[in-house]
Structure formats: structure tokens, C-alpha cells
Design brief:
It contains four helices and six strands. The protein is of the alpha+beta class and 153 residues long. Strand 3 and strand 4 form a beta hairpin. Helix 1 packs antiparallel against helix 2.
Length: 153
């Protein structure tokens, strides 16, 4: 197996671990998956949010999201990984199903689906691949395929 193939697989595993930690609400693991201050400043853009810079701001945002989200599940599609030396770029579509706090004694709040396109940048460290930057943008426009399907009806 070539080194590039091994790197690609390791980045795919790190990317999957990031989303799985979010699904479990495991803040400590999410924090551990991000690059620490020794390796430079991190950044994050959640859909509709301003740019967050620095470990404190970024991790506070995840703590806030986790505290206000009872349920979240990511179905990743269109995952593409590119590795160049000690930097890797992952693009994907996050098909998100989430629910907030329950109301009126219900077990779970209403579930909401959302599509987000994401770019995750990773850096290689002695501890493995770590998230350097995450940028998520909501998908607001229909694709040409969706329009073609509607015109065929």
C-alpha cells in the first residue's frame, strides 16, 4: 500500500471520527480532534455564523451547539480527500438530521433536516491528523438535477 493511500485513509478516519464525536455529544473527543495552539490558530465557520478564530472561540461554539442539540446525525456524501504533504483537504455534503430540546413533555424535540456543504482542513501532527479549519455552508439552491426532475413531471 502506498504512503499517499495510507494518508488518505487516515484523513478519512479522522474526518469520520470528528462527525461521530459530534453525534455522541463527546465534547472532549471533539476538542482532542482539533489542532492545539502549538500548531497554529484554528478557525471555524458554522452555517450562518461569523468566522470563529482560536481554540477558545471554536471550542465554545461546539459546546454551545452540543448543549442545545438533543439529537444530531450526519450522513456524509460526496466525500473527497486530497492530501499534500502534511495538509489535507476534505470536502463533503453533510446531510444532517437534528432535534432540539423537547417541548411539552415530549421525549425529543422536532427533527429538522438540513444540507450543508463542508470543507475540513487537516494538519498532520505527531498525534495524527487534526482539524485545522472547518467551514460549513447551507445548501440553499436547487441543483440542475432537481430542476430536470421537476420538468419531467
Amino acid at each position: 500500500m502506498s504512503g499517499a493511500r495510507t494518508d488518505t485513509e487516515a484523513v478519512e478516519l479522522a474526518n469520520t471520527a470528528f462527525y461521530e464525536a459530534m453525534e455522541r455529544g463527546d465534547f472532549e473527543e471533539v476538542a482532542d480532534l482539533w489542532l492545539d495552539e502549538r500548531h497554529g490558530e484554528i478557525s471555524c465557520v458554522h452555517p450562518g455564523w461569523p468566522v470563529l478564530s482560536g481554540r477558545g472561540e471554536v471550542l465554545r461554539s461546539y459546546a454551545l451547539i452540543m448543549a442545545n442539540t438533543e439529537y444530531i446525525q450526519f450522513f456524509l456524501t460526496d466525500v473527497k480527500v486530497s492530501v499534500a504533504g502534511d495538509t489535507a483537504l476534505v470536502t463533503c455534503t453533510e446531510n444532517i438530521l437534528s432535534g432540539g430540546p423537547a417541548e411539552d413533555g415530549a421525549e425529543l424535540g422536532p427533527l429538522v433536516g438540513q444540507l450543508v456543504v463542508a470543507t475540513n482542513v487537516f494538519r498532520r501532527t505527531a498525534e495524527g491528523w487534526k482539524v485545522w479549519s472547518h467551514h460549513g455552508s447551507p445548501v440553499l439552491a436547487e441543483t440542475d438535477d432537481d430542476e430536470d426532475d421537476e420538468s419531467a413531471v
